[in-house]
Design goal:
Length: about 350
């Protein structure tokens, strides 16, 4: 494997916002790259909004601009989804994660203009649709959105249970059906002994063949977990641990046209989010995620490099992530594999 890499920052220092986090990325058919993130005084502050920038074919980035901002309420976790020339942006609003509402806006002109925001699922509290990572589309047009909720544990006051599920749409995102939670054996999870929660959140999806769909999950257990579906994401096997270390930090995965999988994550052992979110690497798998290797290091200096997003087009990987909560970093990797 050979990789040709280029790194940029989506915007310069000295912006109107103090803290940036949770970026998302999409690439349109013509090669235009769209990136969004939330930014404000700090995560959870009421002045956070959803910001966006566009990289044109010349490689230059537009100035950041707000695309979603409701006064007096925190904005979280934008997720871009591109299909053909259409672009959808999902995001959360709420003072607390347990109180999230999901909004959706659309663009038909490459992110230049957007529709008015609407609720994704009317009356929902807690969050529906993609929670952090991008949806995938099956061959029959079904859209699968990787979702999760963080709820209070009724049996353990002060603790939370994290549950992952899939939101399914068969009508181009007009309506959504929530799957049952991904099965898990919480009795053997020890995360609550180390942190306030235990369970699985923020799935990252890929498809292999037919109705075979797979997910990797952020966990409280010091490792990335996995689950698989043979019926198009409607039901899932019990989540099981992989050998991939991860300290309860964000992950994302994509499948290239060649079938090669690319996973971006913090390969750090530990249970708590207080563990350093460095290094940040891309790992590759040529056996549908059974094994991983050939790591490409994105960052390995002290600091926080977290919440990555990754998409692919042809032989190219496009990656963004939080760079010290100060900026959003962007990489383009051109990947060549050799038989």
């Amino acid at each position: 494997m050979t990789i040709k890499a280029e790194k940029q920052y989506v915007f310069r220092e000295g912006q109107l916002f103090q803290s940036s986090h949770a970026s998302t990325i999409a690439v349109l058919p013509g090669g235009v790259v769209i990136v969004a993130w939330f930014a404000g005084s700090y995560e959870k502050s009421s002045d956070t909004a959803i910001w966006m920038a566009i990289q044109e074919r010349d490689g230059l980035w537009s100035a950041p601009r707000k695309v979603a901002d409701e006064e007096g309420i925190a904005h979280w976790n934008p997720v871009l989804y591109a299909h053909g020339g259409s672009l959808v942006l999902f995001y959360k609003v709420g003072h607390e994660i347990t109180d999230w509402h999901t909004r959706i806006i659309r663009s038909e002109d490459g992110g230049q203009t957007w529709t008015e925001a609407r609720e994704l699922v009317s009356g929902d509290v807690g969050g529906r649709g993609p929670v952090r990572n991008k949806p995938v589309r099956l061959t029959d047009g079904t859209i699968l959105a990787p979702s999760s909720i963080e709820r209070m544990d009724m049996e353990s006051p002060g603790k939370q249970v994290w549950e992952a599920f899939i939101d399914i749409s068969t009508d181009e995102g007009k309506t959504w059906t929530k799957s049952k939670p991904v099965p898990k054996n919480l009795s053997v999870y020890v995360g609550a002994d180390h942190w306030i929660a235990k369970g699985l959140i923020q799935p990252a999806l890929w498809t292999s063949s037919g109705d075979d769909v797979h997910m990797l999950l952020r966990s409280t257990e010091g490792k990335i977990f996995r689950s698989d579906s043979v019926d198009g994401g409607r039901t899932w096997c019990e989540a099981y641990p992989t050998e991939l270390p991860n300290n309860n930090s964000g992950i994302d995965v994509t499948r290239l046209e060649s079938g090669l999988l690319a996973l971006v994550y913090n390969p750090v052992s530990g249970y708590a989010t207080e563990s350093p979110r460095t290094p940040l690497v891309v790992a590759f798998s040529n056996d549908n995620g059974a094994s991983w290797g050939d790591e490409w290091v994105l960052e390995d200096e002290p600091g926080e490099y977290s919440y990555p997003a990754i998409v692919s087009q042809g032989q190219n990987l496009y990656i963004t992530y939080t760079w010290k909560r100060d900026r959003i970093a962007f990489w383009k990797l051109n990947v060549h594999t050799w038989e």
